[in-house]
Write a structure and sequence with these properties.
- The protein has helices spanning about 5-20, 40-45, 100-110, 110-120, 145-155, 175-180, 205-215, 260-265, 285, 290-300, 310-320, 345-364; strands spanning about 45-50, 90-95, 100, 135-145, 160-170, 195, 230-240, 245-250, 275-280, 305.
- With about 375 residues, the chain is of the alpha/beta class.
- It is globular and about 50 Å long.
- Residues about 1-5 and about 200-210 have low confidence and may be disordered.
Length: about 375
């Protein structure tokens, strides 16, 4: 039971957010209510604006973040003018007279930890899950490497708030091996162990890397390390502030026993999942699994699922900026890459995801 005083505190919190960011929760950003709830108008309301000098903490990390893949960074030896760097441009929401600076909104909410705290309190999640562990608000992301970048941007941008994490280590089976086995699915015993992620990964560039990459980076700029501890983020989880967890499964259709991946590797029961985010058609993997689909329908998360529009970010950058900030570094053979620069668009994707979670679970 939620006491009257608790309810009033929640109303006060929501009203304070609305007061400081009145343009951020306009009904014009969403469609009319239907059987699947209100849908966000991605193409109509998303816009890029040159705001890097006018927002709080415009750049939260650099190319040395231990969780970012080297091939996603855009550190360069060339001195760039304002507006030539991905992080100079920020995603805003705009429809008619209504406008929302997403970067400042999420900063003021406190990032994933702050959003998680508000959702956790609003829904009175002060109880344990089936494993007897503290209940967190659980977001599961299922898709390809474009969605992986969103998780890495969460980790890099808000690393100071990470309260727990696990990562796959010593996995013996990946996409190249799967292709060599004519697409045979990945078994649980080929997925290695799940271990705590180190905040720093030791590593070094080999001599060949040093010669080819030293000319790329600005003089005196440290090189990103080669990851040497056999970790990968194909099946990770990361928790912020003890209240919200983000789980990611790379291409879930590759796994022989997807339910086992949830239960054995991620230690997550289906009924404890609160939000689902998909891309690359991976919602079809779930809809074809009767057990999983039925649980998600019964808990209501299937109706609220989010289909992530990565291509839309590229389209609106090209529309508003005239170019795409794709990764452009020594690891890319044909720059710019289809993967976005980091820091850059994935940080805007983080802001949009946190905004949608906040809206769907508190405002709506």
């Amino acid at each position: 039971m939620i006491h009257y005083s608790q309810q009033k505190n929640k109303e006060t919190e929501v009203n304070a957010t609305l007061m400081h960011h009145p343009g951020c929760f306009s009904e014009s950003f969403f469609t009319e209510e239907d059987d699947n709830g209100k849908q966000f108008k991605y193409d109509e309301v998303m816009k890029y604006s040159l705001l890097g000098n006018n927002v709080s903490n415009s750049v939260r990390y650099n190319h040395l973040c231990p969780w970012i893949k080297n091939r996603y960074n855009c550190a360069t030896s060339k001195k760039k003018q304002y507006g030539e760097t991905a992080s100079d441009w920020k995603l805003i929401l705009e429809k008619g007279a209504e406008s929302c600076n997403l970067w400042n909104l999420i900063h003021d909410l406190g990032g994933p930890a702050g959003v998680g705290e508000r959702i956790w309190t609003h829904h009175n999640l002060d109880h344990a899950n089936k494993l007897g562990e503290k209940r967190t608000y659980n977001v599961v992301m299922l898709g390809n490497s474009y969605l992986r970048q969103v998780l890495e941007a969460l980790e890099c941008g808000w690393s100071k708030d990470i309260s727990f994490s696990l990562m796959q280590k010593d996995a013996t089976y990946g996409i190249p091996l799967q292709k060599s086995r004519n697409g045979a699915p990945i078994r649980i015993d080929e997925m290695g162990s799940m271990e705590r992620m180190s905040m720093t990964w030791e590593g070094s560039l080999d001599e060949n890397d040093f010669e080819s990459k030293s000319v790329f980076y600005e003089k005196g700029l440290p090189f990103p390390s080669t990851k040497t501890h056999k970790f990968d983020d194909n099946v990770p989880l990361v928790e912020f502030g003890g209240k919200i967890r983000f789980y990611y499964i790379f291409q879930p259709s590759m796994y022989e026993n997807l339910l086992g991946v949830f239960q054995e590797k991620l230690q997550l029961e289906l009924q404890d999942i609160d939000s689902l985010v998909f891309n690359s058609g991976q919602e079809k993997t779930i809809s074809s699994n009767n057990t999983m689909r039925e649980v998600f329908i019964s808990t209501g998360v299937w109706e609220q699922r989010i289909i992530w529009p990565y291509e839309t970010f590229r389209k609106i950058q090209e529309r508003d900026i005239g170019s795409w900030f794709g990764a452009d570094n020594p690891w890319i053979t044909h720059p710019p890459d289809d993967h976005a620069c980091m820091p850059g668009p994935p940080d805007d994707e983080v802001n949009l995801l946190l905004f949608l979670l906040y809206y769907k679970r508190i405002i709506q």
